[in-house]
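> example.struct
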């Protein structure tokens, strides 16, 4: 199987290669540094031996053969022997000075090196100790290093200072030797890295990659309700622990899933019970409203029935002309139509709701509700003022439920303004203003009465279930609470504002109908 570039194996092997190469290179740097130090120490030790050898040769020539510095400078055999000794020790040039620091013998004509040699020779004469120094710079093995080394030793004979000998050597060959060794070391580092990576890849595949691949295959082929096979991995390392933890997690997930199903089932049942109870509550409140309307319009129905009976008594007479009989029959028909309309409105309102939303005109629904309530005695002295400024009033709702909301609000407003039926003074005119306007994607309906208002401590509770300020037997306290639930289910809001002795405002916001609902 071809290993992807971003696989776990590639990532681990890449990091492992970086770590191995970095570690070996750091070790190589340390080794090179120590090797360079040791070679320089060896160079210094060799230089010290050469200086002591040359010192003994110079003392022998001067003391035993009674030669002077000028004789040594012109002696070709002495110069040949000196150069052979230098080349055998890896040094290239020599400078001899007398006890005054004057040059008496030398092999290098470079001014820079001659000045450096004379300087260190005089230092050796002053201290009567050997001295050394580096000068110049060149590229070493890994970084810049000293290019040359210069060493000096005083010439002493029976504690008598006769002069000083200075030699120097080029360190470039030493660095070249180290660089050759460095290339071999780098090749070994590369070979060791390859061997370690191959071995690491084998161990990694056996201990990590293959168990992870088996685990991935098992999880990819995992089916709901199953558990991972126990034979997938039995190691006691982190992979085995991961497998066992995954198996335990799947078991807990399955148990939690069963519990969740049971909770969902119980919640669905509870939701159905709540919906049923809510529907029953709405139905009971509707029947209570129908009862209030029925008692209120009984008098309104009784009046036309009395008129009808009166005209029937007149029709029994024989002294009526044809035109009079026709007029009486038309009036009887008008009163019967009036009674039929009142009863039909009550029946339409009391009929069970289908619960299915349809396109509904808010303006038409409010007008129908007001028309249904007009025969009621409590509405007799209440003027209805219409300010329907909403350009769009179509909503997606159940009209029967929304009509019940409007009915509850209008009846509460009529109760608040008094339902005694007595004539009021001009200054105490009872008015219910019904206003509409559009606010973005909503239609806002306002019911504004001229009643005594609601105190602040009662206003915050008017939408609470069973809260009422009416006398016992005149209200259930569920009308506004049910209205609140109906409007909330439509995605709208209902609120109340009131000022004592200046009336109450009920504000309803209902989402407007979107055309996609019709498709």
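> example.seq
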């Amino acid at each position: 199987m071809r290993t992807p570039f971003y696989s776990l194996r590639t990532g681990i092997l890449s990091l492992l290669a970086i770590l191995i190469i970095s570690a070996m290179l750091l070790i190589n740097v340390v080794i090179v540094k120590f090797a360079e130090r040791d070679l320089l120490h060896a160079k210094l030790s060799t230089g010290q031996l050469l200086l002591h050898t040359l010192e003994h040769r110079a003392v022998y020539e001067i003391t035993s053969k009674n030669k002077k510095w000028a004789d040594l400078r012109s002696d070709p055999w002495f110069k040949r022997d000196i150069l052979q000794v230098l080349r055998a020790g890896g040094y290239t040039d020599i400078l001899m000075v007398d006890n005054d620091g004057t040059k008496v013998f030398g092999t290098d004509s470079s001014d820079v090196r001659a000045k450096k040699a004379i300087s260190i020779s005089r230092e050796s004469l002053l201290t009567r100790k050997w001295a050394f120094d580096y000068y110049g710079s060149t590229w070493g093995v890994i970084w810049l290093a000293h290019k040359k080394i210069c060493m000096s030793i005083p010439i002493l004979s029976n504690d008598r200072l006769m002069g000083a000998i200075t030699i120097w050597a080029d360190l470039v060959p030493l660095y070249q030797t180290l660089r050759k060794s460095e290339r071999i070391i780098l090749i070994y580092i590369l070979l060791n890295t390859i061997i370690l990576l191959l071995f690491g890849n084998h161990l990694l595949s056996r201990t990590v990659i293959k168990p992870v691949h088996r685990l991935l295959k098992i999880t990819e082929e995992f089916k709901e309700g199953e558990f991972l096979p126990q034979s997938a991995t039995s190691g006691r390392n982190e992979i085995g622990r991961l497998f066992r933890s995954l198996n335990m997690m799947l078991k807990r997930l399955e148990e939690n899933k069963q519990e969740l199903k049971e909770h969902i089932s119980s919640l669905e049942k509870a939701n159905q019970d709540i919906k049923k109870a809510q529907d029953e509550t709405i139905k009971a409140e509707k029947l209570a409203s129908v009862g209030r309307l029925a008692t209120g319009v009984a008098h309104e129905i009784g009046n036309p029935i009395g008129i009808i009976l009166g005209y029937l008594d007149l029709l029994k007479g024989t002294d009526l002309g044809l035109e009079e009989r026709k007029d009486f029959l038309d009036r009887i028909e008008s009163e019967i139509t009036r009674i039929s309309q009142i009863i039909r409105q009550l029946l339409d309102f009391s009929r069970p709701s289908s619960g299915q939303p349809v396109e509904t005109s808010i303006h038409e629904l409010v007008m129908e509700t007001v028309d249904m309530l007009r025969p009621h005695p409590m509405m007799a002295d209440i003027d209805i003022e219409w300010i329907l400024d909403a350009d769009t009033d179509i909503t997606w709702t159940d009209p029967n439920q929304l009509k019940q909301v409007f009915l509850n609000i209008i009846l509460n407003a009529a109760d608040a303004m008094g339902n005694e039926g007595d004539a009021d003074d001009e200054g105490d005119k009872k008015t219910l203003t019904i206003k509409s306007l559009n606010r973005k994607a909503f239609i806002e309906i306002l019911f504004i009465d001229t009643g005594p208002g609601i105190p602040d401590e009662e206003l915050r509770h008017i939408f609470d279930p069973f809260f009422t300020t009416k006398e016992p037997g005149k209200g259930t306290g569920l009308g506004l609470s049910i209205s609140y639930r109906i409007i909330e289910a439509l995605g709208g809001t209902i609120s109340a504002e009131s000022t004592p002795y200046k009336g109450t405002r009920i504000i309803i916001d209902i989402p407007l109908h979107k055309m996609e609902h019709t498709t």
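> remarks
The longest helix spans residues 238-315.
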